[in-house]
Amino acid sequence: QSVLTQPPSASGTPGQRVTISCSGSSSNIGTNTVTWYQRLPGTAPKLLIFHDNQRPSGVPDRFSGSKSGTSASLAISGLQSEDEADYYCAAWDDSLNGHVVFGGGTKVTVL
Amino acid sequence: QVQLQESGPGLVKPSETLSLTCTVSGGSINTNNYYWTWIRQSPGQGLEWIGSVYYSGNTYYHPSLRSRVTMSIDTSKNQFSLTLTSVTAADTAVYYCAGGYSRVSAYWGQGTLVTVSS
Fold first, then answer.
1. What is the 3-state secondary structure (H, E, C) of A30-89?
2. Which among B16, B65, B84, B106 is most buried, taking Cβ atoms within 10 Å?
3. How many Cα atoms are found within 13 Å in the side-chain-facing hemisphere of A52?
4. pLDDT at res. A86
5. Is B72 helix (H, G, I), strand (E, B) or coil?
6. What is the mean pLDDT of residues B5-29?
7. Using a CB-CB distance cutoff of 8 angstroms, which residues of chain A are in contact with residue B60?
């Protein structure tokens, strides 16, 4: 059972917009920034979004992050076949002397 | 470009100690405000944060693993390491080392599979 709650799956056709939610609490998302990672099949995770809504260089601007209260979202606009991957949200949690918590991951399928 | 590479045994016996090393290249491990992190993924499961070691040596561990985990940093070798004691089959996973500024893991190793089995 992950501390951050994500839907297990999401899907869309090429060109559509897909949104993934990440629900937490006051000790994690409510207080600290959210990071999103993308894990393509057979590869290591890759940083996608940091500090709630910042994209590292090289990440297409069709990926965007947002946060409100104790929930965050990742949006993929103009879905492409290469976006088929697992997406994980993460945040620092201030409880229990502090630690990082992850969501359970969302498998995005491009139909 | 910073690159990370995990190394260590791929097979560990139950009750023994798992030891992994991550070698950092293309940058200094002794970089201000950088955290060096171990994350694992068990078969069919999601990502699990094991812990982080700050560039200065301070450590932060997952509450459920705190009694079994030790992380350290060796600036002379540009490496950081993980030891996990008293392993069981539940510790079988792909172990990733990662690092970056202010707890954001921007750089990742390719991952190494560690199987706990007799």
1. CCCCEEEEEECCCCCCEEEEECCCECCCCCCCCEEEEEECCEEEEEECCCCHHHCEEEEE
2. B84
3. 13
4. 96
5. strand
6. 97
7. 97-99
Q: Are A64 and A95 in contact (CB under 8 A)?
A: no
Window A:39-78, CB contacts with B under 8 Å: 39, 44-47, 50-51, 56
Q: Report phi then psi at B90, rounded to 5.
A: -65, -15
Residues 6+ apart with CB under 8 A from A54: A65
Rounded Cα gap, residues A11 and B77, in angstroms: 45
Per-residue model confidence (pLDDT) at position A1:
79
From chain A, the residues in CB contact with B61 under 8 A are: 99
Q: Find the closest chain B residue to A104 by CA distance.
A: B46
pLDDT category of residue A97 using cuts at 50, 70 and 90: confident
d(CA B51, CA A62): 31
Q: Judging by DSSP bridges, how do beta strands B79-84 and B18-25 pair with one another?
A: antiparallel
